[in-house]
From TrEMBL:
One of its GO terms (biological process) is tRNA aminoacylation. GO terms for molecular function: aminoacyl-tRNA ligase activity; ATP binding; metal ion binding; Ser-tRNA(Ala) deacylase activity. Keywords: Aminoacyl-tRNA synthetase, Ligase, Metal-binding, Zinc. Coiled coil: none annotated. Belongs to the class-II aminoacyl-tRNA synthetase family. Alax-L subfamily. This is Threonyl/alanyl tRNA synthetase.
Length: 380
């Protein structure tokens, strides 16, 4: 069940202006969402609240403070990006994400922020933060049509409606309904991340503000410490070491694939002899994979042993983790009979195909019983 409530005066911020809603409590009841409806703030809860009752509304301050930092940081970022000396990039939208935010910039193939420009923007933003410039909000009545910006929702009307403009000293002034810091020093720091091209020519620029910068730095440092121990070297060697390990891994994989192919040749000879003698054969290799099984299947086909009612079951993978499987034969009815039988013995069998059924299983528990099914069908 879901309940909606209005509180007067409103304490929790409803979603709007690109800023997510607040959360908190009405008394002991959790408020998980807040939305605006006209001039009312609608609070959503999973439990009822007694109408007309005087209650204490408690705000999740950590969430609000994070949103204030990101939102004020976005205003400052967009203001600096829009200045001609920093490229004159206009912000067309923005998003306050759970872990990082972004502004969408109007760009073209010949007018896109360079690394040098973004470094200059970041430097200027953090310089202004160090200057601790004041941030203030000016509110005027929205009943006068001349005072209503185009961005104001059409349903935001009434005698108490106002237009709020957020001023960052003499740097920026923008209409905004969101919550903001009162001084740029509260932002602590702004870190620009990366850019993505979207919607043809536009560019998304991702960023962090305040507590998120410290959080990202802490996480990155913890990962760096772990990798230092694993790779036996500091972060300045990570890229070189990882590149070398990837190259070595690819080389080793190539060698292993070659060796498995050679092994498959010997195994195919043995399987062919067993099929000729009994009409069926089974083979499992724990360190094999689907490529190994495909090589085996190809070799058995070349040897011409898959004729008549003969069936072969090939499988690979660690016993506890499952892996790929193939059932070979030219008699489709026999192949389907084997698949039906082993499906009852193995866990999580999935696959398909005609003449050469292939798929996967979750574990190889019951493999011996599956082999008994193959032997029973193949011996008929």
């Amino acid at each position: 069940s879901s309940y909606t409530h209005c509180s007067t005066p409103p304490v929790l911020f409803p979603e709007g202006g690109g800023q997510p809603h607040d959360t908190g409590y009405i008394g002991s009841v959790v408020v998980h969402n807040v939305q605006r409806r006209g001039l009312e703030h609608i609070h959503y809860t999973k439990e009822p609240v007694e109408p007309g009752k005087e209650v204490e509304v408690v705000l999740d301050w950590e969430r609000r403070w994070d949103h204030m930092q990101q939102h004020s940081g976005q205003h400052l970022l967009s203001a600096i990006l829009g200045k001609e000396e920093f490229g004159g990039f206009q912000t067309v939208s923005w998003n306050l994400g759970d872990t990082r935010s972004h502004v969408e910039l109007a760009t073209t193939p010949t007018h896109t922020p360079t690394a040098a420009q973004l470094a200059a923007v970041e430097s200027e933003i953090n310089r202004l933060i160090r200057e601790a410039l004041p941030v203030r909000t000016v509110a005027v009545s929205a009943t006068d049509a001349s005072e209503r910006p185009d961005s104001l929702p059409a349903d935001y009307v009434g005698t108490h409606s106002v237009v709020r403009t957020v001023h960052i000293a003499d740097v920026d002034a923008n209409p905004c309904c969101g919550t903001h810091v009162t001084n740029l020093a509260h932002l602590q720091a702004v870190k620009l991340l990366h850019t993505d091209r979207i919607r043809g020519n536009n560019t998304r620029l991702f960023f962090l503000v305040g507590g998120r910068v410290l959080g990202a730095l802490g996480s990155a440092y913890a990962v760096s410490r772990d990798l230092t121990a694993v790779l036996s070297g500091g972060q300045e060697t990570f890229v070189e070491t990882a590149g070398r390990l990837v190259k070595e891994s690819k080389g080793q994989a190539k060698v292993i694939k070659t060796l498995l192919k050679e092994i498959a040749g010997y195994v195919a000879v043995e399987l062919a002899a067993r099929v000729e003698a009994s009409g069926h054969a089974e083979h499992h290799r724990e360190d094999g994979d689907m490529d190994y099984l495909l090589v085996l299947a190809g070799l058995l086909k070349e040897k011409g042993v898959l004729v008549g009612a003969r069936v072969v079951m090939l499988s690979a993978g660690e016993k506890a983790r499952g892996g790929p499987m193939m059932v070979l034969g030219v008699d489709e009815e026999r192949v389907n009979e084997v698949v039906k039988g082993i499906t009852g013995e193995l866990d999580g069998v999935k696959g398909g195909g005609k003449g050469r059924w292939q798929g996967r299983v979750k574990t190889w528990k019951g493999l011996e019983k599956a082999w008994e099914v193959v032997g029973k069908v193949g011996s008929q």
